[in-house]
Structures are given as C-alpha cells and as structure tokens.
Amino acid sequence: MKRRDFISMVPDRDTWPTVNVSELPRDRLELFNHRYKAINMYIDGEPIRDIETTTEISYKILQQLLNKCIEPGHDGRIKGYRALIPFLVRSPYKRTVVSAAKPLGGQGGFSGLLRQVLNKYPSIEDYLKKLILKRNSPERNVHEKSIRAKDLHQAFLKKLKKAGIESDQWPFNTKHLGLRSIQNFMNEVLDESFGRSVNVRGERAAIAHTAVSTGYEAFLNFEEPYDAVELD
Length: 232
Fold this sequence. Notes:
By secondary structure, this protein is mostly helical. It contains 10 helices and no strands.
C-alpha cells in the first residue's frame, strides 16, 4: 500500500492515545522517542532515508510499528502511540469496538471490520442482502435494476447511523467510509447466490453459465438442436 493511501485511512494523529513519558524508565524512553519521531516523520511525508538516518529505525521496523499503532487496544481504541513503548507485553484481546484501520501492506483488514459490524447487527446484513438480490424488504426499497455499490454503501451508512455507530468508529473514521468493503460484500453475496444474481446482474455471459457448477437445474432447458437461437 502506498504511503498516502495508508495515511488517508488511519485516524488523525490528534485522536491517537498518547503516553505519559515521565513514567518510562530512562533505558526505554530513548527508544520510545526514536520510534515516536519515526512515526511522525513518516506521516508527515519525510523521505524514508531521512527517517532511518535521524531515528535509526529501519523501514522494515517502521512498517511493523505503524501496523501496531492501528491495532485495537484493551479499551477498543487503536493503540496509537502506546504501541511504541519498548518491551511492552502484548496481552490477548478480543475486539468489542470497531475502530482500527487496515494494516500497512495488508489486505482484508476492512472486510474483517465489516464482518464484525454485520455480526453485531444481523438485521443490517439481511437488509443489504435484500437490496443486492432485489428481494422484498419491509421498507419496500426494491430496485428495478441491480443496485449500484455506491447506493448500497449509502444505505449501509444510514443504517449504521440509526444503529448509533459513532463518528470515531469504523467506517466513519476512514476516508472512503468502508466503500470498498461494501463492494466486496456485494460481490460475495452475488457469487454465493449465483443463480439469482444472473437475473440481478443481467449479464449475458452469466446466463450462459447458469447450468455449470452451480448444483441447480438450469433456468431454461432445451432438448433438440435449434430449440433456442440468438440473433445479434
């Protein structure tokens, strides 16, 4: 992941949990200060070579520190600068609040956050699936054509606001508000419901393959040659 993409996804540094450095032993304080400076130089756009020279923190270690900074802490917030404390024991933690961002160079972080939200609010997942598969819903929000990902995304955000999700929690604390996760979710639902998604997507190529590897009988059955033809 490029630096600008990563920076756009993490919460503003002003909201990061901080550390009372006065309580750090002297042998740990110096290393903490080097890490702290390296993180801030990276986010400020300083060249990697300058960061390594000034802080004696290698780029590989810097990446690890950045990922640790956006991990969830015991209070459900990201660890922030707390992750930079040397020799800090990492105790097991089960996430209860959705607030972290995607790890640097990693994949699938946002999908995991989306899954946690949907597990907590199963009614929202059902609602989204009805919109994707064009099934009747209590709100009668049925689309004549396949719903666009950005429209599904807007519907998702409205549901989250009604559920009481705060602005400092995922996806509201990210630049694109979880749009990519919703796009991936939409594709997964359509893939899992391939037979119905043929009609939803309206794809000619998909219709041609409805009898292949789905485990279901084809929508249209032909017994003799030329029972069906197609003209351009």
